[in-house]
Amino acid sequence: MTKTLKIIPRHQLNATAWDACVAASPQRILYGYSWYLDAVLLSPDWKWVGLVSIDEAGRYRAVMPVPLRRKRVAGIVSQWVVHQPFFCQFLDVFSLDESVDSTPFFQLMIETFRYGSVYCTRQQFDKQPNSTSIRKLTTHTLNLSSGYSAIYQNYSPNRKANHRRAQREFRDNPNWEMLDSIDPEPLITLFRENHAGTIDGSVADWAYDMFSMLLRELTKRGLATLRYALHNGQIEAGALFVQEGNRIIYLFNAASEIGRKANVRTLLIDQLIQEKAGETFVLDFESPTKSSIRDFYQSFGAIEEPFWTMRWNRLTALERGLLRLKKRF
């Protein structure tokens, strides 16, 4: 069957057909849905387009989202560059055909957009696309199907000890309690006060607005579990888990000094594992590159799962020279 590969602006996409293609594909993951992309690309300086393989009947057979951010490249007039958004660990070619050739999708993206700041994908390339730089990264995932007892046996000795301490703290101190919620503001406040200052370049206000919008969309679809730990009525830690298909994503978390000392996040993660253990779920910790955080997730028995980051630069010699000067000074 003849298929045509097109670049389609977001406002011209058939969102129903797009989401149906993502949901039915072997590559299915939360990040690929149109409504999810709309939420994480909320700012006026962000947008996305779709690369769509359409058959003769007009059906979407394969789709690939391309997130774009308006940037001033080398101090020149701003332009749209490919850039991975927050809360979107990786993207893919989502196809109804398991044997789809993803190469034309990536070639079209690279040919259309001269500058790729970063594009993350689970696609492993037999041959590296021209003009690209590719780096392997990993997240950590935990298979929950074996049941809680078997999973707990694979916790590291240190994680088991911290789990016991947290259990004792909650058992012996009646001032601690757990609370499920749909309100993101306490989690945002915890993050602002305890974590934002450690991030290079700080965190823009629009990013918090985007997170609030995203949680509303997730809650509306029944996909979010937002859980807080309170001490004397004060929220000291929170965790957001998102379940779609057979994958649960540990999407966001924050804790105060009190919450950290009480090992509350260990308890929040363990509680989720207990609730879902024995079912065909995979828990994705969305591991960052920071070694201490990766070690924390690995201590639950999680294993590495690879993905790749792509970058490319087809700017003119003058633009590249200006870009080098900008980075230098």
Automatic annotation (TrEMBL):
- Which GO molecular function annotation, any one, does this entry have? transferase activity
> Gene3D superfamilies, alphabetically?
3.40.630.30
Q: This protein is called what?
A: GNAT family N-acetyltransferase
Q: Where is the BioF2-like acetyltransferase domain?
A: 158-279
Keyword terms, alphabetized: Transferase
Q: Which organism is it from?
A: Spirosoma foliorum
The organism's lineage is: Bacteria, Pseudomonadati, Bacteroidota, Cytophagia, Cytophagales
Fetch the Pfam families from UniProt.
Acetyltransf_6
